[in-house]
Amino acid sequence: AVVSTQSTGELLSKDLRNNSAWNHRYFVIENSQGWSKETISKELEYAGTYIKKAPNNESSWNYARGIIKKNKMKYSDFPPFKELCVGMNESHIPSPFLLSTLADIHVEEGNNTAASNIFEQLKDLDSIREKYWTFKQNQLQVGS
After folding, report:
1. Dist. CA 74–CA 78, nearest whole Å
2. What's the rounded Cα separation, in Å, for the pair 41 and 114?
3. For residues 91 and 81, what is the distance between their CA atoms, to the nearest angstrom?
4. Residue 67: Cβ-neighbour burial (10 angstroms; 0-12, 13-18, 19+)
5. 105, 118 in Cβ contact below 8 A?
6. C-alpha to C-alpha distance for 14 and 50, rounded to whole angstroms
7. Which of 33, 21, 112 is CA-nearest to residue 71?
8. First and final CA of the chain: distance in angstroms?
9. Which of these, 7, 8, 18, 35, could form a disulfide with 25 (CB 3.0-4.6 Å)?
10. Where are the alpha helices (DSSP H) in the chain?
11. Cα-based angle 68, 73, 79 (whole degrees, multiple of 5)
12. How far apart are CA 90 and CA 67, in angstroms?
């Protein structure tokens, strides 16, 4: 597993948007060491370094979010990743992937009003998916 994660690391250092490398990295870990909380933490930190470099790269965001969701974990289980997202938002980085992750965090925390506000922002920032963000917003029980 170490050799393959090293090889994906080399590929990602050359092209951080290489979705195939992100997918292969996930596959290697899934089928070798598995996803312990420690492994997830390390991989979220790893993905976070690439997210900071290219906040509009969907591949690194999907990798990080996928790890959490696949393993039925919560963002609150990984405070450094949550703090990365909050900090990037406070720096006003215009990334639909950042905002979508923050909306998930708010929903997880039961703050549907904050999530709804983010979906409003996403309708403007990511207008091609406006109907999707409206759908996500309509799924919320606002006021809870």
Report:
1. 7
2. 26
3. 15
4. buried
5. no
6. 12
7. 33
8. 44
9. 8
10. 2-14, 19-30, 37-53, 58-70, 79-90, 96-108, 112-125, 130-138
11. 80
12. 24
What angle is formed at CA 116 by the lines to CA 111 and CA 121, rounded to 5 degrees? 130
pLDDT along the chain (144 residues), means of 10: 79 95 95 95 97 97 97 96 96 96 96 96 96 96 60
In order of 19, 25, 56, 65, 139, the CA distances from 105 in angstroms are: 24, 24, 18, 11, 15
* The two three-digit tokens of residue 2, written as one number: 């170490």
Distance of CA 15 to the CA centre of its chain: 18
State the Cα–Cα distance between residues 25 and 9, nearest whole angstrom. 8
Q: What is the pLDDT of residue 32?
A: 92
Kindly state the DSSP code that residue 118 receives in the 8-state scheme.
H
Place of tokens 């976070």: 48
Its pTM stands at: 0.91
